[in-house]
Amino acid sequence: MTEQILSDMGKREVAHTGAEQLVDAGTAFSPDMDIFMSENELLFIADLPGVAKGDVSIEIDENNALLIKAQNSLKEPEKVILRQFNLGNYYRAFQIGQEYDKDKAKAVLENGQLELRIPKREAVKPKRISINA
Amino acid sequence: MLMNRSPWGELHKMRNEVDRLFNNSFQGGKISFPFVNLYDTDIEMLMQIELPGMSKDDITVTYVDGDLKVAGNRKPFSVDGQYELIRNERSTGAFERSYKLPVTVLNDRITADFANGVLTIKLPKAEEAKTKKIDVKVN
To answer: What residues 59-98 of chain B have any CB closer than 8 A to a CB of chain A?
Structure first.
């Protein structure tokens, strides 16, 4: 499943599409995410508990298809008394608008929380034009 | 196949039932955050709690008279500047969970570690609570 984030043409929406892109994902869990949008960038916050630095991969292809994959390093003993979460890898895919500049994307993983920022291309960023008196 | 991470999914009722078995102090409301796994090894009880984005200073763990308490406050991600929140799936807020452990543990040897957004609490069992193998003679 790929989710679309498009802000061009005045649209501000996150829509689900049914595209099957899970060919190599295997069994994976969809991490909880918050997504913020400003006039300059998209900001993704993903909960990736159990993921160590270096075990997360973020790919953005030439069509701005964003793929977040992460490997959970937690191991579990056999005998389970109470289970409220499953251990496994994480996978999430988005289609983001062409106005975002994948080459300037930056990400930080800290305490199992991923922070990914993808700025807009300079050409489409709003510009303040000063008025000369 | 892509799945929701909680095997209970929308079945909050079912989760509440399970929680009630282990949680003596929670009074009403739905339990959705944080998620807790509890394991039993031969030598210890092992609890893992998912608290991504928190730091260890925001979490307190206490153990009194057989009651293990974990409390904290997970704040919403704070943005700097003008942002519109277009997707909000992450749970936030204050929480307190209390568990009565099914076995006697060595309270002076309990350890808690926080790594990669997961709190791991190790509760070594008292000698009498350890799994013992008993050889039964079969004639």
So the answer is: 76-77, 79, 81-91
Q: How far apart are CA A120 and CA B27, in angstroms?
A: 47
Closest alpha carbon within chain B to A7: B86
Q: Is B9 on the interface with A (CB under 8 A)?
A: no
* Residue A122 CB neighbour total at 10 angstroms: 10
Residue B103, in any domain of the structure: yes
| Residue ranges making up the domain that contains B123 | 33-77+85-129
- Provide mean pLDDT across the span B7-33: 49
ipTM of this complex: 0.79
Alpha helices in chain B, H assignment, sequence order: 12-22
Positive or negative, the CA dihedral A57, A23, B4, B68 is negative
The tokens for B89 are 């799936």
Domains and CATH numbers, chain A: 13-120 (2.60.40.790)
Question: What is the number of domains present in chain B?
Answer: 1
Q: Which residue in the set B2, B7, B54 is minimally distant from A86, CB to CB? A: B7
Does a structural domain hold residue B114? Answer: yes
pLDDT in tens, B95-126: 999 998 888 899 899 999 999 999 999 999 98
CATH code, domain with B40: 2.60.40.790
- A23 contacts in B (CB within 8 Å)? none
- The answer to whether position B2 is within a domain reads no
What is the token pair recorded at A54? 């270096």
**What pLDDT, in 10s, does the model give residues A2-46?**
777 755 433 344 444 443 343 344 568 889 999 999 999 999 999
